[in-house]
């Protein structure tokens, strides 16, 4: 049966589509998409864009900016710009993979908790509350330290610590949407629960999920770089932004670009997802009255 027929049976009109907000929101979204495109292109084309081998050493240690090394070299003569470009692949790979896993787990748990309710909701929420009770960064440190500082362990850790927040983002709207008239009408005519969830519940909670995912990406970049800074990130010799900051901190006065470069990359990547999230929030009108 079509959606229109279901709405007719329910005696209600379909939920109105979200209206686009004013130009400022679209400009923010456009700027965020441009920044994201730049970030993704540089990351994907890193081997072609990087001017030098990021692991190649030279006698020119702690060299300042020059026509050959735009951001100088580090303590063992490696090109800082090349390491920033290639290191972005590692940082962003961990970030996107971990958030994708957290989003998948959050969708499953949030939908189960919000739609099924009852004891299922209680069990899922109590387990997630235990994880949610710990500060994200401290929990991440504890898990990575226990499992070991490898890329798979780092991805798994970040996925675990951000799953409770993603689950809550999904569960809240589902609790409301499942009571709407057209959902009740679909259930009354015998439509399967799977079809109700995928066709009538999930589409209505996409907007807050998209915004929350963008913000979580920004937070995850900081978490990944902070863990790497503490020595709990990807092991050498593969470059990553947090590890570069850790290596360069003792040479800040002699070669400030070794710190400024990776710090600027972290800020740009984080700002990209913050701008994108705010643009999406405005354009999708998340949080406003329907």
TrEMBL record:
<keyword id="KW-0813">Transport</keyword>
<feature type="transmembrane region" description="Helical">
    <location>
        <begin position="201"/>
        <end position="234"/>
    </location>
</feature>
<comment type="similarity">
    <text>Belongs to the binding-protein-dependent transport system permease family.</text>
</comment>
<dbReference type="InterPro" id="IPR050366">
    <property type="entry name" value="BP-dependent_transpt_permease"/>
</dbReference>
<feature type="transmembrane region" description="Helical">
    <location>
        <begin position="254"/>
        <end position="280"/>
    </location>
</feature>
<feature type="transmembrane region" description="Helical">
    <location>
        <begin position="153"/>
        <end position="170"/>
    </location>
</feature>
<keyword id="KW-0472">Membrane</keyword>
<keyword id="KW-1133">Transmembrane helix</keyword>
<feature type="domain" description="ABC transmembrane type-1">
    <location>
        <begin position="88"/>
        <end position="277"/>
    </location>
</feature>
<feature type="transmembrane region" description="Helical">
    <location>
        <begin position="92"/>
        <end position="115"/>
    </location>
</feature>
<feature type="transmembrane region" description="Helical">
    <location>
        <begin position="27"/>
        <end position="50"/>
    </location>
</feature>
<dbReference type="InterPro" id="IPR000515">
    <property type="entry name" value="MetI-like"/>
</dbReference>
<dbReference type="Pfam" id="PF12911">
    <property type="entry name" value="OppC_N"/>
</dbReference>
<dbReference type="InterPro" id="IPR025966">
    <property type="entry name" value="OppC_N"/>
</dbReference>
<protein>
    <submittedName>
        <fullName>ABC transporter permease</fullName>
    </submittedName>
</protein>
<keyword id="KW-0812">Transmembrane</keyword>
<dbReference type="InterPro" id="IPR035906">
    <property type="entry name" value="MetI-like_sf"/>
</dbReference>
<feature type="transmembrane region" description="Helical">
    <location>
        <begin position="127"/>
        <end position="147"/>
    </location>
</feature>
<dbReference type="Pfam" id="PF00528">
    <property type="entry name" value="BPD_transp_1"/>
</dbReference>
<keyword id="KW-1003">Cell membrane</keyword>
């Amino acid at each position: 049966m079509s959606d229109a027929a279901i709405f007719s049976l329910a005696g209600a009109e379909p939920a109105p589509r979200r209206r686009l907000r004013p130009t400022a929101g679209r400009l923010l979204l456009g700027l965020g998409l441009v920044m994201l495109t730049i970030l993704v292109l540089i990351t994907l084309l890193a081997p072609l864009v990087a001017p030098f081998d990021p692991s190649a050493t030279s006698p020119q240690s702690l060299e300042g900016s020059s026509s050959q090394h735009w951001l100088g070299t580090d303590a063992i003569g490696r090109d800082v710009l090349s390491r920033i470009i290639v290191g972005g692949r590692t940082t962003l790979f961990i970030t996107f993979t971990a958030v994708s896993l957290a989003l998948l787990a959050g969708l499953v748990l949030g939908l189960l908790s919000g739609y099924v309710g009852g004891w299922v909701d209680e069990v899922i929420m109590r387990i997630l509350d235990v994880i949610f009770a710990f500060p994200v960064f401290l929990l991440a440190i504890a898990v990575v330290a226990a499992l070991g500082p490898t890329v798979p362990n780092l991805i798994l850790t970040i996925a675990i610590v951000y799953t409770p927040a993603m689950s809550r983002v999904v569960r809240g709207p589902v609790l409301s949407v499942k009571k709407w008239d057209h959902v009740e009408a679909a259930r009354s005519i015998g439509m399967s629960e799977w079809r109700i969830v995928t066709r009538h519940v999930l589409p209505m909670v996409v907007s807050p999920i998209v915004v929350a995912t963008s913000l979580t990406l920004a937070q995850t970049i900081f978490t990944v770089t902070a863990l790497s800074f503490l020595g709990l990130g990807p092991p050498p010799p593969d470059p990553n932004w947090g590890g570069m900051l850790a290596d360069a901190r003792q040479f800040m006065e002699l070669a400030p670009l070794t710190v400024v470069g990776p710090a600027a990359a972290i800020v740009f990547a984080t700002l990209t997802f913050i701008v994108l999230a705010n643009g999406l929030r405005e354009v999708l009108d998340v949080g406003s009255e329907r």
